[in-house]
Amino acid sequence: MQIPIVNQSHHPLPSYATAGASGMDVRAFLTEPVTLQPMERALIPTGLFMAIPQGWEVQVRPRSGWAIQKGITCLNTPGTIDADYRGEVKVILINLSREPQVIQDGDRIAQLVVQPVTRVQWEKVTSLEATERGEGGFGSTGFVG
Known about the structure:
Elements: E1 5-7, E2 15-16, E3 24-27, E4 34-36, E5 41-45, E6 48-50, E7 56-61, H1 64-70, E8 72-74, E9 79-81, E10 90-95, E11 101-103, E12 108-116
Antiparallel strand pairs: 1-6, 2-3, 3-12, 4-11, 5-10, 7-9, 7-12, 8-10
């Protein structure tokens, strides 16, 4: 599949880091570094614009290395870029560490995963089929520990 993309940054297009990678690394496009204080969030531009085909989405997901090493992750995860969106791809990052973290131009800040979208129609009913679990949720099946 090919997706039309405009790259207004000076960075390479998102790419897979390894042959088995599901996500493509996307980079920050900044005129100056951004410092995220603990628990602070920011919208980080990428300089990328894309025309995703109807029936598909691009998900924005955190990078595991940034999460464990710096405490930086994406909010609204996975973020969804819809097929009809034509604006700049931006990534919502948050610093969950105890120290300020600096994001530099060109840093690989997230990964993009292309996924098909299934559209449904709701069927309004008055009751649902019973299951063994029923209404149990939020830990009702036990905790590992």
